[in-house]
Design brief:
- By secondary structure, this protein is α/β, with parallel strands linked by helices.
- It has one domain: Glutaredoxin, CATH 3.40.30.
- The chain has helices at residues 29-33, 49-61, 63-68, 82-92, 107-112; strands at residues 15-20, 23-28, 37-43, 73-78, 99-102, 115-118, 124-127, 130-135, 138-144.
- The protein has a five-stranded mixed sheet with strand order 5-4-3-8-9.
- It is globular.
């Protein structure tokens, strides 16, 4: 794909991962997104300072507002392995208000056209920071930061709540 996915396009099939009972469980995007209104929050990595301290806390705090606005799923997709992603989830969101999924192989991120090279931060290839509103696997809105260090257009308080 050239450039990021666009509004009106289907989220491509890809396999993410989730740690369940200590075992890695594959999660296919087709089944995950089918028939549901989802807010996807894409982040460069678990425990990275901006993700952990600036970006995600407001999404956790506003989870009830997002659900009341009609979002059936609040998904965090991290470009980290499933073990780090699960540990981060239990640290930042101990009540499980959001669902954290690993894109450690960057399969979805690459198919979405949302990879970023971050050699100066020693992160290697990662996901760009983004938010995506999806209805039945079709992209309705996509906001992508110009740098993984920015949190401007992907803040929780700028995601449109209108259904």
């Amino acid at each position: 794909m050239l450039g990021p996915i666009k509004k009106g396009r289907r989220v491509p099939p890809a396999t993410l991962a989730e740690l369940v009972g200590g075992a890695v469980r594959p999660v296919g995007t087709e089944q995950l997104l089918a028939g549901k209104r989802s807010l996807i929050i894409g982040v460069p990595g678990a425990f990275t300072p901006i993700c952990h301290q600036v970006h995600l806390p407001d999404f956790v705090a506003m989870a009830d507002q997002f659900r009341a606005a009609g979002f059936q799923q609040l998904l965090v997709i991290a470009a980290s392995d499933p073990f780090a992603t699960a540990a981060w989830s239990s640290t930042i969101d101990p009540e499980g208000r959001l669902r954290f999924l690993s894109d450690g192989n960057l399969e979805l991120t690459r198919k979405l056209g949302l990879t970023s090279q971050e050699p100066a931060l020693f992160l290697g290839e990662r996901s760009r920071r983004y938010t995506m509103v999806v209805q039945d696997a079709v992209v309705e809105r996509l906001n992508v930061e110009t740098s993984v260090l920015n949190v401007t257009c992907t803040r929780a308080d700028v995601v449109e709540l209108a259904v």
